[in-house]
Amino acid sequence: xxxxxxxxxxxxxxxxxxxxxxxxxxxxxxxxxxxxxxxxxxxxxxxxxxxxxxxxxxxxxxxxxxxxxxxxxxxxxxxxxxxxxxxxxxxxxxxxxxxxxxxxxxxxxxxxxxxxxxxxxxxxxxxxxxxxxxxxxxxxxxxxxxxxxxxxxxxxxxxxxxxxxxxxxxxxxxxxxxxxxxxxxxxxxxxxxxxxxxxxxxxxxxxxxxxxxxxxxxxxxxxxxxxxxxxxxxxxxxxxxxxxxxxxxxxxxxxxxxxxxxxxxxxxxxxxxxxxxxxxxxxxxxxxxxxxxxxxxxxxxxxxxxxxxxxxxxxxxxxxxxxxxxxxxxxxxxxxxxxxxxxxxxxx
Length: 348
Description:
The chain is an alpha+beta fold. It folds into three domains: 50-106, no CATH class; 111-253, Immunoglobulins (Immunoglobulin-like, Sandwich); 258-347, no CATH class. The chain has helices at 50-64, 68-79, 85-106, 264-274, 279-286, 292-303, 310-324, 332-347; strands spanning 14-15, 18-20, 108-114, 118-120, 124-133, 139-141, 144-148, 155-159, 161-172, 176-187, 192-194, 199-207, 218-228, 232-234, 237-239, 243-253. Strands 1, 2, 3, 5 and 12 form a five-stranded antiparallel sheet that branches.
C-alpha cells in the first residue's frame, strides 16, 4: 500500500508517505513498558542534597554507558526517599528522557537518512525518514484514538502526528552566519503496522536553492523531527512516548566545488596565503577529520598575526565555527581564551 502527501514548508519541502515491510533479525522486547510518572509537588526540609546530587550523577553515568535499566532503578529508588522539589523535578525529567531512549533502543528506531552527505547548490537534497520496528513483536501505531475529556461526557479524537524540522545555516565570509528554520506538522492518515524488522518510510526532497540561491558559499540543512503517536502497541502491551528522529545534516557547496575537496588542507593554506575569503569557509567544511587539529592551529596563528586584515580575521572566525562547531561570540579574544582552555585540556 502506498500513499502520497505533499506540502510546502518554505524550502519546497516534499514528503511522501509510504510503508513497506523488510526483514531484520528479531530483537528482544524490554522487560517492562514504561508509562510516564506523574509529577508531584513536595518540600523536604533539612535534607542533605549531596545524596541526590550523587544519585543524579550516577544515573547519568549509567546513561552514558547505555545502562538504561540500571539508571531507571537508581531514579526510582531515589524518588522513594522523598526528594526535595527541585531534585524531584530533575529526576522526573531525566526519567522521562531515559524511558524514551529505552523505547528507541528496544522497540522503535527512528532516523533521517540522506542519499549522500554532500550536494552542489541547485541539486535536490534527497532522503527519507525511517521508522523501524526493532522489537521481536508486531508494533502498531494507530492513526487516531478516542480520548476522554476531563469533566465532560464527550470524547475527542487524538491523531498521530509527525513533526518535521529543517534547520538552515549558511556560513559567509566576515563571520556572517545566517540561520533559519522551518517545521511542519504532518497528520498520519492510516495506522502504521510494522512486523518485526518492518519499516515505515517518508521520502524527503528539499530544494537547496530555496534560500538565497545565488550565494556562492557553504551551507547546511539539518533534518530532524519527532513522531507523536496517539499510542504504541507492542504485542499485548501499550505505551505513550514521543519518538525523536536522529537528525542528519546535508552539506551544500557552490557548484563545481569538487576540485577544492582534493587535498583540502593544502587548499586551506593556499586560501590563507591569498586571503581568498570566499574559498576559506568552503575548504574548512571540506577538511578531513585527521586534518582538523592542524587546520585549527593554522587558523589561530593566522588570526593572531600582526597586520592580519580585519576581513580575513573575521572570515577565519567563520572557519573556526565550521571546524569546531562552537557558537560563542565573534571576537578573537573569546576564541583565543577558548583555544587556551582547550590546549590545557588536551595536554593534561
